[in-house]
Amino acid sequence: MAGSVVLLLLLLLVVVAVLGAAHVYLWRRLVRDVTASRPLRRAGAVAAAVLTLLVPATLAGTRLLGPLRSAWLAWPGFLWMALLFYLVLALAVLELPRLVLMRTAGRSRPAAADPQEERVPVPAVAGGPSAGPAVAAGAAGGAPPADAAGPRAAGDGQGTREAPAPAPVGRRLLIARGAALAAGAAAAATVGHGLYRGLGAPDVKVVRIGLKRLDPRLAGFRITMASDIHLGPILGRSHTERIVRLVNATSPDVVAVVGDLADGSAAELGPAAEPLARLTPRHGAFFVTGNHDYLSGADAWIEELAGFGVRTLRNEHLEIARGAAAFDLAGVNDVTGASHHDGPDFDAALRDRDPSRAVVLLAHQPVQVHEAVRHGVDLQLSGHTHGGQLAPFDLAVRLQQPVVAGLARMPGGGGRPDTQLYVSRGAGAWGPPVRVGAPPDITVIELHPA
Q1: What tens digit of pLDDT does each residue of 46-62 get?
Q2: Is 337 exposed, middle or buried (0-12, 13-18, 19+ CB in 10 A)?
Q3: Residue 87 CA: distances (Å) to CA of 80, 81, 179, 274, 330
Q4: Number of neighbouring beta carbons within 10 Å of residue 306
Q5: Which of its termini does the chain have fewer beta carbons within 10 Å around, N or C?
Q6: 189, exposed or middle or buried, with CB in 10 Å at 0-12, 13-18, 19+?
Q7: Which pTM does this prediction carry?
Q8: Can you name the residues that pair with 446 across neighbouring β-strands?
Q9: What CA–CA distance (Å, rounded) separates 277 from 306?
């Protein structure tokens, strides 16, 4: 227990250090480089410190306060997470052209000139060799001209000399401000569009998939899947109601909720999930656990869903029949369940089934397909990735998961049939309700004999 606490504290320190470095970078590029005002720089430093702490405070607060009492913190905290990501990304992309322009501006300036001032010729004082009639008149008792008065007119009698005029905005300052404005505008526009997409209705997609062992009498069988709904402090009951309307409009034979239903307990978010009771599939609605469900009390959620008529497949399978034709629908627990003594068990899920029938497996994470291949599964349906959610974060997802979104074929080998894998982008969003390059979706899997 003590070791887990120490590890958690170390992880927290690393996260805060990374966030601190990111905010220092933002302060340098968006504040220090664009103004010489000390009050503005100090205000920017304070804002950077506060925003650095906002992110971990949001992550911790939504867990400690619960989803219903933390919405006031979740909205600014999660939106800043998205804006921070795209601000840093935009500024990083602009670093090279900014550096090139800075160097060019430095080379184009005359060597003798101060970058912050421009020198102009000023007439010598009265009585000097080059004094003109106006200056001479001043010496005789007339009013001296403005150019001859004051410290700037203090000549040495050697003719004209150069004196500083009001300094224009330097080229380097213009470049710094231009880069800051461009990065800010790009980040704001990206997050704004992503927020519109993330809070909008999921796309409804129809994907036809051929299975070699599928009985021809089952051609056109429809499995409508909605993964990663993520009920929580931002997405609530109205989100579930919209998903239920869209799913029912597809006339599903089976509904599959493929993990990550909620980010909060069933006691708090049960009313938000209650519209699932109005799903209208012909052969039932089914659920498998996701990693976030174990963080939210998986057993309580399984019981809650049973009250809504949604059955959880916990390392088991059942027969789905249409007349005399049938296939097997199986489900395995998420890999996170292993740390809660409820891990995936493919042997138990696929034991004692008819090997002549096609089998469709529900498994939250795409990476579970490697076990599915070894067990001769025809098709695995997964979620978890959100399609990356915030592009180009999908590049990082590819390091952990074999498929980020869409349909792929995994070679069987050793005489085993190939396993097809379909990965949904999910119907909700975790953290920022923002989707960039990965719109939410509900997918209708239409089965056909290969």
Answers
A1: 999 999 999 999 999 99
A2: buried
A3: 10, 10, 11, 38, 44
A4: 12
A5: N
A6: exposed
A7: 0.84
A8: 208, 222
A9: 9
